[in-house]
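Structure first, sequence second, as always.
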């Protein structure tokens, strides 16, 4: 079952011998069980740090992070992370790589079943170097999902892909989340990606970042990338980043911030 995520007055500083670098400041965020939240913000503002705090890969300087009713004090097995790069072990087959994600389960799904879910049926015995970038990222998504995570964290997972492959991966992620229904938090710089996938978009400001806006995307699924209802939402998001020009409604442009 998906877990809710709660961040209460979370701040994070990175300390060196000489100084402290504040990254996040007084983050207050509640994410409902099964909700898909996209996080936008300027480069270097702490978006990836926010994911690390939720996953327990790092600890806040102050404030608390909870999944459900339990606080996050260390790496939390309720979370799975998909990174910008696939990070597959080159000496392992794709099936073996996917199986790593289920190492804590007593009766996990088979890697072959997960390969079918992400459109890689028949590729279990090949090695990472034999896959395209999009296929490798599919395998990384399968590895994250095989453990049936309650919280799925995605750190710009499609940033390195070409535009068409990226859209296919967005469709795949939307389908998988509709089926498995985890709580999902995705960091992205792609405004249209956020609008296509998320139930709610959280915008962070400059470092030390706090939440400057949240935008609900109350549109039915599956979504149409050319839906005119996305136009005012896109304009509202871009205005937070200083873009006040008219936004085309033909869906042809991809906006990144």
């Amino acid at each position: 079952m998906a877990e809710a995520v709660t961040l209460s007055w979370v701040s994070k500083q990175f300390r060196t011998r000489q100084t402290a670098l504040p990254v996040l400041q007084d983050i207050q965020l509640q994410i409902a069980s099964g909700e898909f939240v996209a996080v936008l913000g300027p480069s270097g503002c702490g978006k990836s740090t926010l994911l690390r705090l939720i996953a327990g890969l790092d600890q806040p300087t102050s404030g608390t992070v909870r999944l459900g009713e339990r606080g996050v004090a260390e790496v939390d097995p309720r979370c799975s992370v998909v990174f910008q790069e696939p990070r597959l072990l080159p000496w392992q087959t794709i099936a073996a790589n996917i199986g790593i994600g289920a190492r804590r389960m007593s009766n996990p799904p088979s890697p072959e079943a997960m390969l079918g879910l992400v459109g890689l049926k028949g590729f279990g015995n090949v090695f990472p170097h034999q896959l395209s970038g999009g296929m490798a990222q599919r395998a990384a998504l399968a590895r994250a999902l095989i453990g049936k995570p309650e919280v799925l964290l995605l750190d710009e997972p499609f940033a390195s892909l070409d535009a068409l492959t990226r859209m296919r991966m967005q469709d795949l992620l939307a389908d998988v989340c509709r089926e498995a229904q985890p709580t999902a938090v995705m960091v992205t710089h792609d405004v249209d990606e956020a609008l296509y996938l998320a139930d709610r978009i959280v915008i962070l400001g400059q470092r030390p970042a706090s939440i400057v806006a949240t935008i609900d995307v109350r549109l039915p699924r599956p979504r149409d990338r050319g839906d005119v209802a996305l136009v005012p939402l896109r304009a509202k998001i871009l205005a937070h980043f200083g873009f006040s020009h008219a936004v085309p409604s033909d869906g042809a442009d991809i906006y990144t911030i």
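Margin note: The chain has two domains: 1-78+149-257, 88-148.
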